[in-house]
């Protein structure tokens, strides 16, 4: 089954930066990438969006009690290096603009 690298952008947050190690700034958004096995790019995008939404509703970030607006920022076939790396990558949080 093909693998795709999907970059998701989250926005619409108002979270104190202390949780992400930036105590002086409010976190308003993030980028996160996932490598997803799927038969098509559209299905890979759907699976990646669903996985990130789950992390914010009942997973890792559920205690923050916020639900970001999610959109696919980038979508392409995964490179060989990305095939060999773990499927998850960390979040890159940013202060965005108010």
Helix content: 10-25%
SSE arrangement, N to C: EEHEHE
Rg from alpha-carbon coordinates: 14 Å
Quaternary: single chain
Please give the order of strands in the largest beta sheet: 3-1-2-4
Structural class: alpha+beta
Poorly predicted runs of 5 or more residues: none
Q: Mean of residue pLDDT?
A: 87
User: Biggest sheet, in brief?
Assistant: 4 strands, antiparallel
Q: What general form does the structure show?
A: elongated
Strand-residue proportion: 35-45%
Number of DSSP E strands:
4
Per DSSP, the total helix count is 2
Separation of the first and last Cα atoms = 41 Å
In summary, what is this structure?
Helix content is 22%, strand content 39%. The chain contains 2 helices and 4 strands. The radius of gyration is 14 Å and the shape is elongated.
């Amino acid at each position: 089954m093909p693998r795709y690298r999907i970059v998701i952008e989250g926005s619409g947050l108002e979270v104190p930066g202390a949780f992400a190690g930036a105590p002086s700034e409010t976190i308003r958004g993030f980028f996160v990438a996932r490598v997803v096995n799927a038969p098509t790019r559209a299905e890979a995008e759907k699976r990646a969006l669903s996985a990130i939404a789950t992390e914010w509703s009942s997973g890792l970030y559920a205690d923050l009690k916020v639900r970001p607006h999610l959109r696919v920022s980038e979508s392409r076939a995964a490179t060989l290096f990305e095939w060999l790396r773990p499927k998850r990558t960390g979040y890159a949080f940013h202060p965005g603009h108010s």
